[in-house]
Amino acid sequence: MRNGVKISSREILSLDIGAGENPKGSINTDIRLLPTIDVVCHALYLPFRSEVSDKVFLSHVIEHFRYRDSFNPLKECNRVLKLGGRIEIWTPNFQALGVFYVWLLGNINGKNPPMLATLLTGSQDYEENVHLRIYLERIGFHVVRIMGDSALRILAKILPSRCGNIGAIAVKVRS
């Protein structure tokens, strides 16, 4: 049921977890009560049956969890997705943002933010070397696409792992 309307079993059910003020799903969730939100809940405790959703959209949510806890919201998304369902995740690419910061402002006070960013996120020196892929494939997803989002659209097409935001689309292959 969505806004008092029963959802047909044939309708594609997409969940936007942490939708905020720009929802993209047929059911939009967030931890905050906003006019755009259908269900107020935490990303770790989705109030949906297992294997009910065809798509899950998770934009700028995963980076709000500590590294050791970041598998948990992905496991919960895996739980609610049907076998063969798709998840799309977007997160800031902290290494690329650190490099941009130094390029823009120079080496400030002898400190080098990209080195710190590399320690936090790992070195992403080629398209397949992305933590999103590692996360997803460990918990039952097969990554089908890595994407970059940048003000420089050409850069996003050529070097997706070097963009300000990085995303992945994966398919659930097992529970």
Features:
175 residues; alpha/beta; Rossmann fold; disordered N terminus
Question: How would you sum up this structure in a few lines?
Answer:
With 175 residues, this protein is an alpha/beta fold. It has a single domain, classed as Rossmann fold, CATH 3.40.50.150.
Structure, described:
This protein has 175 residues and is of the alpha/beta class. The model is unreliable at 1-7, 112-124 and 126-130 (pLDDT under 50). It has helices at 71-80, 94-105, 113-121, 131-138, 153-158, and strands spanning 14-17, 27-30, 39-40, 53-59, 81-92, 141-149, 165-172. It has a single domain, classed as Rossmann fold (3-Layer(aba) Sandwich). It has a seven-stranded mixed sheet with strand order 3-2-1-4-5-7-6. The two termini are 25 Å apart. Helices cover 26% and strands 26% of the residues.
How are the SSEs ordered, and which strands pair?
Elements: E1 14-17, E2 27-30, E3 39-40, E4 53-59, H1 71-80, E5 81-92, H2 94-105, H3 113-121, H4 131-138, E6 141-149, H5 153-158, E7 165-172
Parallel strand pairs: 1-2, 1-4, 2-3, 4-5
Antiparallel strand pairs: 5-7, 6-7
